[in-house]
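Subject: Interface between my chains keeps coming out wrong

I've been trying for a while to get a sensible model of this assembly. When I model each chain on its own everything looks fine, but I need the whole thing in one frame so I can look at the contacts. Pasting all components below, labels as-is. Any help appreciated, I'm running out of ideas.
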Amino acid sequence: MNLTRLGYALAVAVLVIAPAFLYPVLVMKVLCYALFACAFNLLIGFSGLVSFGHATFFGGAAYFCGYALASLGLPTVLGILTGTAASALIGLFVGSLAIRRQGVYFSMITLALAQMLYYFYLQAPFTGGEDGLQSIPRGTLFGIVDLRDDVAMYYFVVAIFIAGFALIMRVVHSPFGQVLQAIKDNEPRAVSLGYDVGKYKLLAFVLSAALAGLAGATKSVVLGAATLTDVHWAMSGHVILMTLMGGMGTFAGPIFGAAIIVALENKLGDVGNLLADFTGVGWFRAIGVSVPLVTGLIFMTCVLAFRRGVLGELAHFLRLDRRQAKGADDV
Amino acid sequence: MEILGVPLQALLAQLFLGLANGCFYALLSLGLAIIFGLLNVINLSHGALYMLGAFVTWMGLQYLGLSYWVMLLVTPLLVGVFGVIVERTTLRRLYRLDHLYGMLLMIGLALALEGVFHSFYGVSGRSYAAPEVLAGATDIGFMVLPDYRAWVVAVSLSVCFATWFLIEKTRLGATLRAGTENPKMVEAFGVNVPLMVTLTYGFGAALAGFAGVLAAPMVQVSPLMGTNLIVVVFAVVVIGGLSSILGAILTGLGLGLIEGAVGIFYPQLSATVVFIIMAIVIMLRPVGLFGREK
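Reply #2:
Try treating it as a single job with all components included. I did that and got this:
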């Protein structure tokens, strides 16, 4: 357990000094996706609920936050809170419908409702349709710190990320989180023990939606934009891949998954060009614009050969935490 | 003659378009239901297989100069064989695990398939014409019926009915249904269940490919044509439930009609009406219209 603590201390230290040797905007992007994936993991890894529509919370919050900042002129923190609250409400709506069914139906309902909201964002007047919202102002932190400075913004994002991550850990270790684990392992038994399973699932769903919203709202402030890509179902697939790749049901796994996927997307064009130069096959240049092909193949590889994910495999290898490794095995 | 300010001709034309769309919903949800019955996996790559069907047909027409009628037979076979290969090489390894992994694998396959066609053909749509025999329209008195749509409706309904008959009324279908209920027991009777599973997946894939061939002259052939459609089909499946073959077919047709009708009076809502109906059905009858309580 001490090793785990050491790991977290090290991670925080790395985050603090990261701007010295990495481009802050890239790291901020990773952190936003990482928080998104951790929020998703709260459902898939710790509650056994598989949502295929999580993009709607991530991207929806980005729209609401962007609208609050750009059109209503709210302060940055209030804008992010608006986005988070909006996602929590949408999560309440989607969750209360989805928990009425189990298994594959749950997943299909979340996917279908997310698609319905996608059409809503496509047509609603405040989202800018195909163009999305552009030039969302970063503003200031409580009127004191100017967030247009990348480094200031960076530490703000780090603070949000750590707060969100700590909340997830707290939730999982709380009695509430233990009940979620029980529901995941054996729902009928949890029912027979007298737990109102529906209420627990719904609360977990709303919490996850809110945290995904927090991540999405923060991302819209970092990049100054909210677009349809963020609410598209492919983004829901993306967050599943990040979580799977890092390790479902491990705390820090999704962070690794997010980092790997974001880095990959950034470098894919270069890799494609390199392959094209090396082999003389011009088609490889298309890899840069056809990210889905590569993510799809990685997805299949992960499912077939690498189910525990980066951190899960590592934990399994080191036998660091038997429960975690086991958890990843029987998700 | 007008109904609510809409000329009857236009109304019927829209409804018929809705019915044609409903046929695609029916064909696709039928495939999903068959695969789910035996594999317990929702085939999330179903939309990509439908897209594959449309593209294979387009390629056959474009590069090999084959006729539509040849492709109508060849494409489902090719897509079916592709399905068999996928099942044998990848999906099969995941049966002993949680069904979640099967679904995740299918998401990956869908992304990869879309990505392949995207890298070659971009996002722009391609089209091919309906065969000449079906290019015109027939005046049947109260409305003008586009021949190709009429053909789509007729042939899809026939295929749906044939599939229903095969599964519900024949001995082969009985074995299949028994496999759905209790695969171990069926295996004990000497049936090669793994082979049955493989062929079932291949058949479901072939149905999706078949729908792709039919759809291509009506819609643009593009890498993304499958996913937008399949999410609607998932909603259809939630509404109808996966346990009844007939239920899947009827729900698909009915929702296509409703979508067509909504398109006449309130076009903005036509993309979302199926999802709204799904939400209402979940609230009133969580197991779905044709679902059975387990």
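Reply #3:
Confirming on my end. The longest strand of chain A covers residues 140-141.
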